[in-house]
Structure prediction request, 189 residues.
Amino acid sequence: RTARLMPIKTLESFDFSFQPSLDRHRIMALVELEFIRRAEVVHFLGPPGTGKSHLATAIGVAAVKAGRSVYRCTLVDMIEALTKAEREGRLVDKLRFYARASLLIVDEIGYLPITPGGANLFFQLVNARYEKGAMILTSNRGFAEWGEIFGDPVVATALLDRLLHHAVVVQIEGASYRLRHHTDLIPEH
Ligand code: ADP
Prediction:
C-alpha cells in the first residue's frame, strides 16, 4: 500500500500560520483524544489541499502513540471493500472489522459520487459505530451536498443525523498548501 510509504504527518510538521482560519487550540484540544473516549465524530471540511488529511492523520498518529487502535481509509476504498465482502457473503465480518478500531478515519468524502448500494453500506457501518466508536471524516463538500454525493437525500439525511449528533465540525477556509508556490493561482493570505 502506497499510503505506508508516505512521510508520517504530524502536528509538528503542520504550519498553522499558513491556515489562519484554523483555530490551533481546537486542534490541540482534539489531540488530547477525549473525543475518542466520548465516541464523537470530527469533521474536517474545506477545499482540496487545506490540510484536512494531514490533520486527520496527525490526530490518528497521536492516538496510536496513546495506545488506541486506529484505521484509516478513503470512503471509496471502504465502500469497495464492503461491496466485495457483501458479494462474497462476508459483510457482517467486514462491518465488524471497520467497527472495531477505537478511531476510524474516513478520508476524501465528496470527491467521487457514491452509488445507492454504496451509500447503504456506509450507512450500515455508521450505524455499527454510532455512539460506540469515534470517527474523523474529511470532505471538500458541505453537508448540504451530501444528498448529491450519496445519490439519495433520504440516506444522506439519515447519515448526517447520526454523524452530526455528537460531533465537532472544523471548517478550514483557505488556500491549497500544494499550490503555495503558485502565487498567481491562490488568493493572498
Ligand atoms: P486535503 O486533505 O485538505 O486535500 P492534505 O492534508 O492532503 O489536504 O494536504 C496536501 C499536502 O500539503 C500534504 O502533503 C500535506 O502534508 C501538506 N499540507 C497541507 N497543509 C499544510 C500545512 N498547513 N502545513 C504543512 N503542510 C501542509
About this structure: The longest helix spans residues 52-65.
